[in-house]
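QA checklist item 7 of 12: single-chain prediction sanity check.
[x] sequence parsed
[x] length recorded as 159
[x] structure emitted
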Amino acid sequence: MLQVGHPAPSFSLPDASMEMMHLSSYRGKKNVVLYFYPRDGSPGCTIQSIDFSDREQEFSRLDTVVFGISRDDVLSHAAFRDEQGLSVQLLSDTDAVVSRKYDVLEKKVVDGKPRESLSRSTFIIDKKGILRHILRDVSPKDHADEVLKKVKSLNGRTD
């Protein structure tokens, strides 16, 4: 089980533009926010992704990059990004390898069949690659503001 203070699990995933994002490439350079969300285009996921996009410049001023991760493929991510005018990078974890590393899969029974779905969760990783905050079962509304406050505290700011 992941814990605050431990190294963030490393990974590489394709983004909506089909370019690979390597978490390790940010170590020593940027803080990283990873928000896992269930599905492109659903109401909660849309709210959450738009809110993170709207605050992208604020995160950038705090030396922080934000990535949304779901099990949707890169084509779905590209359509979602373009339809909603999103600026945050969306990463595709179709095989759920990264979702398992971050322990965000939950088992549900839908129409009598077992399914795995993503639990809405966010991880804040500092420049050293250490997990500083783990937020599970989050509500999409006002979540980006909550994460922004936590990132500010990483940088010693309270405003």
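[x] summary fact logged: The mean pLDDT is 93.
[ ] second reviewer sign-off
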